[in-house]
Structure formats: C-alpha cells, structure tokens
Please model this.
Amino acid sequence: MSLTSQLITDAFPDLDKVEKLNKEAFPEEERVPLSEFLRYQDREDAHFFAFYNQEEFVGFAFSISNPKAFYISFCLSLYLVSLTFYDDKKNVR
Model:
C-alpha cells in the first residue's frame, strides 16, 4: 500500500468521489456538507485532503487549527481499512 494525498479545492477533479464517500459514510444528520469544508479552502489554518492508494481514491480529511486547538475530521473507505488490518490470510497486522 502506498498512500499519497492531494489538497481538495472546489476545482478538484475527484470532488464527486469525495461527495459520494461523504454521503455513504455519514448519516444526513451527522454529515458535514462538502460546501462547508470548501469554504475554508483559502485559509492558511485549514486543509482539506484527499487520500489515494496508488491511483485509487480511498478517503479524505479536513483539519483546522488555532493557537489553542487543532481539529481533524477524516473518512477512509472500508476497502482501505480492511487492507490495513488484515493480510490475504485474514491475519491481523
């Protein structure tokens, strides 16, 4: 597994994949809309990332900070989580 990340902006080419995972992972009442994350894209204290396993989109994270606090929200696909914890013989790593 080789994870890489890219910053997400409103012009991000895989924004539809981020939106799809966000909708699948969180119930509507707990979901933060992507528009909320994207409104921070020009701030230096906030970052919105997409994660890839080679070429495949596998998750996203949002972080924001100030001198007193750091907040991070993340979501990874179940495919990536299963790769992380089990090998091909179903042994926990």
Observations:
- The helical segments are 15-25, 34-38, 78-85.
- The chain has three helices and four strands.
